[in-house]
User: What shape does this take?
Amino acid sequence: MADLADMRHELMGRVQAVVTACCDYRSAFDHYSYLYGEDRREFFRQFLLYGHILTAAEIEAHGENGVPESPPTLQQFREQIDSYEKIYEEVNRIEPISIFQSWMKVDARPFKASLLNVIKWWSLVFKQHLMDHVMHSVTDAMFEPLKQTVELLKTYEQELPEEVYKQLEELPEKWNNIKKLAIAVKQHVAPLQANKMTVLRKSCAAFDVEQHRFRERFRKEAPFRFDTKKPYQLLDTKHIEIKQMESAMTSIYESAGLFEVMVPDYKQLKQCRKELCLLKELWDMISLVGACLDDWQTTKWVDINVENMDLECKKFAREIRNLDKEVRAWDAFSGLDSKVKNMLTALKAVAELQNPAIRERHWNQLMQVTGVRFVMDSDTTLADLLKLNLHNFEDEVRGIVDKAVPEMSMEKVLKELKMTWSTMEFQYEPHPRTNIPLLKSDEELIEILEDNQVQLQNLITSKYIAFFLEEVSIWQRKLSTMDSVISLWFEVQHTWSRLESIFIGSEDIRAQLPEDSKRFEGIDVDFKELAYEAQKTPNVVEATNKPGLSQQLEDIQSR
Assistant: This one.
């Protein structure tokens, strides 16, 4: 048990180390969150008006008048585009596969592809604006300011090289030719681009249908049930299938990024991946709990440490409650939760049955209640007890134990009573004249007799007396007979002692009362016979419960 606990502790430590490493890995991408968290349109709108995003302090400072507009310069455009290009290169260098602690593999390719797509969108917003500005705003009018600048320089006797004047004459025509060529190229590639975008949109739609079909199969085939056979084999199969689907999804994302095609989120596939991870975590817990409980099964009855097992089960219960809430609707979770709860209930019953008051008859009663038979001996294991389905008979077990405890007290009283009276003997003293053994008065004996009679009366009124009723009744009769015989014996003995000195010790009285003396002679013979016979049986219980003794004493007393 100690080795298993150490192994479990080491395993959980390694798992926690991997969880921490994975969390740190995920946190490393937090500084990219603004790329997919901020409103791209609002950001660009403010950039075109003010050259940057307004802060709350700026807005508050200008109040109702509003922040004055300050359109961005070409340099500011360059800085923004360069920043996105730099981020793109940075993200592109992210390793697609990361392995932690030599066994935990994280596939970042879907995330990487999506993030690169988002970065391209940000960069494209700024580039497209400049292209539109060149194509629609910067036309032939851009050359006139240059010519005016040259004329201005001439007035200050600053001549430019002849080459500059030549370029100013040729550039407008070249500019017009470039615009015509750009329009022609755009018209030429437009059908190809449109065709490719159409094909890509169809691929996106087809993949969307496929992911829904896969989702339906996943829900049917993945190990969501507690009675699933070979769950890890199924998990591996589904992992491979999802990985193939994710690879296709990444390819679609990359192509869509090139042709600026909007791609669905493919939530069904992502949900399958999430549930697969949760299933893996759940089945790891099921395997851990199962291995621990199976190890306990072989524990011998005398070696069962309920306290340690109970603590371990409660620890499992806490870890099960800490699992993702989404798994609670699955049959596998319900089965695991019930298994641990049933074990906790069964352990309570086992603890009750470890009570020293439990006897073989109580085990027989329990077997009768549960309908399961087994031999209760030193080889009995926890597995044998669990076959009784103790978690279904918690009240019955408690009832049996509640009865066994007072029965043990009764058993103790009867045992002490037997021991007391097995050694209790009459004490005799010789008659001064005849040496006949006379019963000696014993106050301790009488006191014990009275106390034991009260104890037996208390036992007989108990609602748990059933099993000991016959034995208690026998002892009541024995002690009652003992009490009456001892009282009667002392009465007869006292009467005999008094009359013996009159009718046997005095010749004058015998002569005066011949008939009475004759009758006493018979009494004297009978009493002496009883006295000698009683001395042969020193034990008080045996001596006083001889058949017919009470009647003989009554006959002597009545004469």
